[in-house]
Write a structure and sequence with these properties.
Length: 417
């Protein structure tokens, strides 16, 4: 039988230690703290969700805290004892922070009951299935979602810059560091070795959020699959090819395992744009890694090629904005093979076509990216055309085989900010 008092008392001491640690400010805000609407903070493991929640909740005064990412609380059944212990330790708090709620069996029933009893609830979760429609299915009351990813470039830059007065050269240098190391807060704040930290984190996510959660026996093959996806970020994936490479039994197993990895916020897949939803779902997928640091620390062989890191970083920023409800995004490829990296859609309207081109000085590369945009402009009727570059900035009117469009070239650091 679980001794809730001992477990929660230890967690309370950990909570007090959180208050002593250095906090790296985030751009997000936890809204409507004074209302009983359920607040849900979602994002990858170790991205800073708990720090963010505690920092925001300190403004309210007293709140109770339970971290369900604790082996002592696995498989608990007596929720009444848990709440009684919380009330005793935290002097009957009205606000509860329930950390990593997805680890609690039948969490939705527990949360709904607490809300009916008048508690003001803040939940965190490292499972993408807690987003949008899943939450609407599980929670009977209204909820408000906040997305916490690893640092955006703006957050990274704000925390690591040397002074209030910054130069373009410093921004470019910080972008290069961010491209290679990624945005996980802890190694930046504590000065830890990025490679070692991210290798350990990657394996912990695989074990805790995939292998253990889904009772997977072939953990070695799952690890091989994850390493292969990291090594092929920004590329198209073929389930049949992945079946042969990993030794898993079928494309169905590959599909299931990649879904698990996406659910754990290690990767995300990108659909092709089509005006027909079925064609979007059936399209070949492109794979992206949730943080560039995983690419440089976990890929089979990192070649030092900056181009894919630019592409992946732009995709992660668009994914962040998508999860915040600002937009939807896709890739586009026409019958002639011309491709647009990102098609941005807001509501029913396509609002921007984006190419990522690290080296626009290479004429062949530049022509390929520009022609892809112009074909996209012709097919999708969107004239807002952008090429994200390393340094080059300009607006040019370009014509090719009768297709004429105005194209903005913008450096990645400026686009991210």
């Amino acid at each position: 039988m679980t001794n809730f008092r001992d477990v929660l008392l230890m967690q309370k001491r950990e909570l007090e230690n959180f208050n002593q640690k250095q906090y790296a400010p985030r751009l997000a805000q936890l809204k409507e703290l004074d209302k009983d609407i359920i607040k849900v903070i979602i994002g990858p493991r170790r991205a800073g969700k708990t720090f963010f929640a505690i920092h925001e909740l300190k403004k309210t005064g007293n709140f109770g805290y339970v971290n369900f990412d604790d082996e002592s609380l696995v498989g608990i059944e007596n929720y009444n004892d848990l709440i009684e212990t919380l009330n005793s330790l935290y002097n009957n708090p009205k606000i509860l922070l329930l950390d990593e709620i997805q680890n609690l069996p039948k969490w939705e029933l527990f949360v709904n009951r607490l809300q009916r009893q008048g508690y003001n609830l803040v939940l965190t979760g490292s499972n993408s299935n807690l987003l949008s429609s899943e939450l609407a299915t599980h929670l009977t009351g209204r909820y408000l979602s906040t997305i916490i990813f690893p640092f955006s470039f703006k957050e990274y830059f704000n925390y690591s810059k040397s002074s209030e007065e910054t130069t373009t050269g410093e921004m470019k240098a910080k972008l290069h560091d961010y491209l290679i190391k990624g945005g996980y807060p802890e190694p930046l704040v504590k000065g830890l070795d990025y490679n070692e930290y991210l290798r350990t984190l990657h394996d912990a996510i695989l074990f805790k959020d995939v292998v253990k959660r889904h009772n997977i026996r072939s953990s070695g093959q799952l690890g091989d699959l994850s390493r292969f996806l990291v090594s092929n970020s920004t590329n198209f994936i073929s389930y049949n090819t992945l079946t042969r490479l990993t030794g898993l039994k079928s494309a169905g197993s590959i599909t299931k395992y990649t879904d698990f990895l996406e659910e754990a916020f290690l990767f995300f897949k990108l659909n092709a744009f089509s005006f027909k939803y079925k064609e979007q779902v059936k399209s070949n997928k492109k794979i992206y890694t949730i943080d560039n640091g995983f690419i440089t620390s976990r890929a089979f062989q990192y070649s030092g090629n900056i181009g894919p890191l630019y592409d992946n970083l732009a995709a992660v920023e668009l994914k962040r904005r998508e999860l915040m409800g600002e937009l939807e995004f896709y890739y586009y490829k026409d019958a002639l093979g011309y491709e647009v990296d990102f098609v941005v859609k807001r509501g029913l309207e396509i609002t921007e076509l984006i190419q990522v081109c690290y080296n626009v000085n290479d004429e062949k590369t530049r022509n390929r990216e520009v022609r892809g945009l112009l074909h996209g402009y012709k097919d999708l009727h969107c004239s807002n055309l952008t090429v994200i570059t390393a340094d080059y900035e300009n607006t040019e009117t370009i014509e090719w085989y009768g297709i004429k469009g105005e194209i903005k070239f913008v450096p990645l650091w400026k686009w991210l900010l």
